[in-house]
Design goal:
This protein is an alpha+beta fold and about 160 residues long. It is built from five helices and five strands; from the N terminus they run E-E-H-E-E-E-H-H-H-H. It has helices at about 20-25, 80-90, 100-115, 120-125, 135-150, and strands at about 1-5, 10, 45-50, 50-55, 70. The strands form two sheets. The chain has a three-stranded antiparallel beta sheet, covered by helices on one side. Strand 3 (about 45-50) and strand 4 (about 50-55) form a beta hairpin. Helix 2 (about 80-90) crosses helix 5. The N and C termini lie far apart (about 45 Å). The mean pLDDT is about 95.
């Protein structure tokens, strides 16, 4: 089966029911996407499928079709990803770091959908991503900082 990952067409000789997470990690060697709970409750495995955040641990690779997949390994290729990574470092978000790839991918989807999120927007978007270290306040601050650093979207005339 052919799927597009981080801008490249890749071949995966797997059953269509294989979770995307295992194709990314075990077949393609993209280990930035983490296994957390296996039931889509923690968010550690969040990737973008067709531009939307999805939990890779419960997404069968056969359901992807032609939709492009973006993983944490390619996040720095976007202006939003660069702003988030810079803010994550500036605010010192990371403690253990295990959940951070999923947190960053979820935050990137939020900022792509809403360029100036308020606390309620951030809480709603990030609520399914668990951080066992409890860095939620710093995550919120980093998202706000990244949003402030991004250029405002052009307004239609």
């Amino acid at each position: 089966m052919l799927i597009q990952v981080n801008g490249s067409r890749r071949e995966a000789d797997v059953d269509p029911d294989t979770p995307l997470l295992w194709v990314l990690r075990d077949v393609f060697g993209l280990t930035g996407t983490k296994f957390g709970c296996g039931i889509a409750m923690c968010g550690a495995c969040t990737v973008h499928v067709g531009g939307q955040p999805r939990r890779a641990c419960v997404t069968p690779v056969g359901d992807i079709g032609e939709q492009p997949i973006l993983t944490i390994e390619a996040l720095e290729g976007s202006t939003t990803g660069q702003a988030l990574q810079k803010a994550w470092l500036a605010v010192d978000v990371v403690q253990c770091g295990y959940c951070q790839s999923g947190q960053l991918m979820q935050a990137a989807a939020l900022l792509e959908a809403k360029s100036t999120p308020d606390d309620a927007d951030i809480d709603a978007a990030m609520s399914g991503n668990i951080c066992r270290c409890g860095t939620y306040g710093r995550i919120r601050a980093a998202i706000k900082q990244a949003a402030a650093d991004l250029p405002l979207p052009a307004k239609a005339p």
